[in-house]
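quick one, 381 residues, struct below
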Amino acid sequence: MLKIMVSAGEISGDMHAAAVLKKVKAKYPEVEIFGMGSTALKEMGAEILIDPTEISTIGYIEAFKNLRQHFKHLSKLKELLRERKPDLVFLVDYSAFNMKLAKACSQAGIKAVNYFPPSAWVYNKKRAAKMASYGTKIAAVFPMEQDVYEQAGAEVTFVGHPLLDLVEVSAQKSELKKEFKIKAEARVIGLFPGSRRGEIESLLPEMLQAASELKKEKADLKFLVSAADGINKDYLQSFVEQSQIEAEIIEKSNYKIMKTAEFIITASGTTSLEAAILNTPQIICYQAAWTSYFLAKYIFKIEFVGLPNIIYGSQVVPELLQNDFKAEKVVEIALEWLNDQNKLNKIKKKLQTVREKLGGGGAVARTADLLLKEGGLKNSG
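---
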């Protein structure tokens, strides 16, 4: 019986790992899956021995606050490698941590597959060389990721990005407006302040201030605030009430909001890529500890933080970073777009190219097949 140990350290990684392993289980129900993850992996039937999501952070320096706990988790997984001897280890995102686990797998002579590997294509290409030296198989989700890891000597399979299989809204904008009880003539702007309280507290007040200024200029605007999973609606409502702007908080409808909106104002992260897949223009906002920003921008020389811009290779959508993220700058960009549909159309055309670069869908199934192949079960049943 195939034994797979999984290591997923954040909510997004937990979700992506679960989607793949669910397909593995569908083909081979007897496969044993255990390790580190959270709710999605538990629900698909994995034995979760560590749930690290409560200590997940954004930024480099911030992660040091929980360093001792991270090392405890790593020690536990190394212990599981010795005691339960998995046939294969599935490493999902959580780069700094999973690089150390990949090294342990190499030392133990256990195969490892890395899905959402370290972003060596953005900075620090030595990471790709390290993963190659460990013999870790790379399931690449971005084309530039494939190039960098192959150049480093790793064995790479380009599986494409799984969001292409997940991000879909069949309803038209007019139907969605009816569902949200919005007047047909209203123009919608979506606000996506993030999934962590730190992000929300630094981004949402400024977003709402921008909304207030825009409403004075354009009376037909309607603002929808997306409540991320795990974020209490009442918590977001407290920000809205303080701002005195009329904005509706919507739960579990991210993609519908994106499809309804003329454009969105969003925290940097996966949301920006989801919006790109739906061809929705966006203003990307980012604020982190200055130490983390300095490391990213000046030491690792990251030109962009937004995934659509990174994938396209130049700026497709504006990024307002650190002190540049001010309500007045958001308003300036938003008014340009609201007054000139051609500007939005040009962005949409470039977002189509971003989508094309992500592959043609089927990433989850291809990654599941890769795991089965590495585990010796592909085409055996």
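The mean pLDDT is 91.
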